[in-house]
């Protein structure tokens, strides 16, 4: 048995896919709820579940539908330890999904478009700013490319006005900031920092 999330913006968000006897398949959303989603998030080391999604909200999967009427209590170690039926009356338009607390997504706000502004990250259910203590060309470049905005041309500073603070350190190009070293709400490295910003060239 293996488990993964597909179709999301990070490895901690997406359509639930599991492998059984060498074949990958999906899970039907009948009776799919937060207790089921929590087991998935914990099994994938993605924290806890923020949302249990239904109706193929991360796109329709393919292949088999391996579980229906999943009814986890929430404490199980693996999704396949939960009571469920393997016979189903579902199609892939009912594929179940989850959003876990360790999912990170980013936006730039207050700029002229989506490729400029203050860096904000959604993490553990809330939006936070990013400390500029280690906000250099590499970090800005990872974010601009991930947003499909070309290379960074400026790194303006802003004020911290959101409840949380995130710090990123990238030593090489990565597919997203979540793949770099990061710390959340640690006071020392963020002391006297400003909120990081970036202007990408928007190409």
UniProtKB/TrEMBL annotation:
Give the way it sits in the membrane.
Single-pass type I membrane protein
Q: Which GO terms describe its cellular component?
A: extracellular space; plasma membrane
GO annotation, biological process: cell adhesion; zymogen activation
Superkingdom: Eukaryota
Q: Which Cys-Cys disulfides exist here?
A: 72-82, 170-180
- A Pfam match is SRCR
The answer to whether the entry has keyword RNA-binding is no
Q: Can you give the residue ranges of the SRCR domain?
A: 3-101, 106-201
**Places the protein is found:** Cell membrane
Which GO terms of the molecular function aspect are on file?
Answer: serine-type endopeptidase activity
Task: Read off the SMART domains from this record.
Answer: SR (SM00202)
- For this UniProt record, give its keywords in alphabetical order, as a comma-separated list: Cell adhesion, Cell membrane, Disulfide bond, Glycoprotein, Membrane, Phosphoprotein, Repeat, Signal, Transmembrane, Transmembrane helix
Q: Which InterPro entries match?
A: SRCR, SRCR-like_dom_sf
Name the job this protein performs.
Cell adhesion molecule that mediates cell-cell contacts and regulates T-cell responses via its interaction with ALCAM/CD166. Contributes to signaling cascades triggered by activation of the TCR/CD3 complex. Functions as a costimulatory molecule; promotes T-cell activation and proliferation. Contributes to the formation and maturation of the immunological synapse. Functions as a calcium-dependent pattern receptor that binds and aggregates both Gram-positive and Gram-negative bacteria.
Q: Which PANTHER family match?
A: OLFACTORY RECEPTOR 292, SRCR DOMAIN-CONTAINING PROTEIN
Q: What is this protein called?
A: T-cell differentiation antigen CD6
Organism from which the protein derives: Casuarius casuarius
């Amino acid at each position: 048995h293996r488990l993964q999330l597909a179709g999301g913006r990070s490895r901690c968000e997406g359509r639930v896919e599991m492998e059984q006897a060498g074949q990958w398949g999906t899970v039907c959303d009948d009776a799919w709820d937060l207790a089921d989603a929590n087991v998935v998030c914990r099994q994938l080391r993605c924290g806890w579940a923020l949302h249990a999604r239904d109706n193929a909200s991360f796109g329709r999967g393919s292949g088999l539908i391996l579980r229906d009427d999943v009814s986890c209590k929430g404490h199980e170690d693996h999704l396949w330890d939960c009571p469920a039926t393997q016979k189903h009356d579902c199609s892939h338009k009912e594929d179940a999904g989850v959003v876990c607390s360790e999912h990170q997504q980013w936006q730039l706000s207050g700029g002229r478009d989506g490729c400029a502004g203050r860096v904000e990250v959604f993490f553990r259910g809330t939006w936070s700013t990013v400390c500029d203590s280690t906000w250099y060309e590499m970090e800005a470049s990872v974010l601009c490319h991930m947003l499909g905005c070309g290379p960074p041309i400026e790194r303006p500073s802003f004020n911290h006005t959101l409840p949380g603070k995130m710090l990123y350190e990238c030593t090489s190009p990565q597919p997203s900031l979540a793949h770099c070293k990061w710390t959340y709400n640690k006071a020392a490295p963020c002391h006297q920092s400003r909120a990081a910003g970036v202007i990408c060239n928007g190409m």
